[in-house]
Amino acid sequence: MKVRYWSGNPLFIFLALAAAAPTFAAAQTPWQPSAGHTQIPIWPGAAPGAEPHKGREVAGIVTDSTGKPKPVGGKPWIYVDSVSRPTMTVYSPDGRNTGAAVVVFPGGGYFVLAIDLEGTEACDWLTSRGITCVLLKYRVPCFRVGPYRDCHTALLDAQRTIGLVRSQAARWHIDPHKIGVLGFSAGGHMVAAISTHWDKRLYRAVDAADSVSCRPDFAIALYPGHLAVPEKGFVLNPDLRVTSQTPPTLLIQAENDPVDPVENSIVYHAALRKAGVPVELHLYAKGGHAFGLRRTSFPITEWPQVAESWLASIGVISK
């Protein structure tokens, strides 16, 4: 596997070029959340649809060919590779609890997970706003299928996690009717996938959590991929069966995104609008890809405020 960078811009694209692991700046050890937080395995036994993984889970700082950290927004970032045992980590709100919860899907092209850039840093923002954050460390890399490069195992992990969160809502002081999803890049595709594949579990039920609805109550996708491809004329991925029951959705993307073309958001927005789903699409001229919540010089860097206003407008949080 190899990571390609554009100098001076917080952009990256993952290319599966070889079986070798990416370069790390530190020892190759599994990712662990910050002190006071515990990873919870989402499957009681072997995960359904398990695929063979080479090597054990590793996490490290992304470096360039010289061994120096490759920053995004002026800071290094961490990714996780070879996840075969998916987990969720619950981050409770700081102070006031709105009752809302968001399951976060980090991006990484379904090769790896940008675990801090598009994971824990999103949780820091959400919990500061009184929202419980559930960080999903889903299985990667996965065997992607079809021209849209869909990831079946990631969708299974998403279905299972939302069911678990809803079934344990009282334990974490969550309103079971205010559980949403937030994803970046490939994680943005997961947002669309779970939004359109919640009516039936795609695996055999393992316990009572699988009898609880896994429909998100709202959805936010940033610079999503896998929704449309140039070779198909940028038509919507046919696996995304949008209906009037698809949850209210917020889409955010930059028009100069060099990794996932802006048409991904545009065609999904059109399908949601046609189905009568409440949806907002915010496009920005500049911003690129994979900026997460890190500050940039572009207006798109204010997207968290846009998201908060949208959440208030649909009644998830107070205005």
What would you call the shape?
Answer: globular
Helix/strand-derived category reads: alpha/beta
Low-confidence blocks of residues: 1-22
The N- and C-terminal alpha carbons lie at a distance of 45 Å
| Strand residue percentage | 15-25%
Task: Give me the Rg, rounded.
Answer: 18 Å
Largest sheet features: 8 strands, mixed
Distinct helical segment count:
5
Mean model confidence by pLDDT: 90
**Count of DSSP E strands?**
15
* Succession of helices and strands: EEEEEEEEHEEEHEHEEHEH
Secondary structure: helix percent: 10-25%
The spatial strand order of the largest sheet comes to 3-6-9-7-12-13-14-15
Care to describe what's here?
There is one protein chain. The chain is 20% helix and 20% strand. It contains five helices and 15 strands. It has helices at residues 116-128, 152-167, 186-196, 263-274, 303-313; strands at 2-5, 12-15, 39-41, 58-61, 78-81, 87-91, 101-105, 113-114, 132-137, 144-145, 150-151, 179-184, 219-222, 249-254, 279-284. β12 (179-184), α3 (186-196) and β13 (219-222) form a beta-alpha-beta unit. Mean pLDDT is 90; it is low at 1-22.
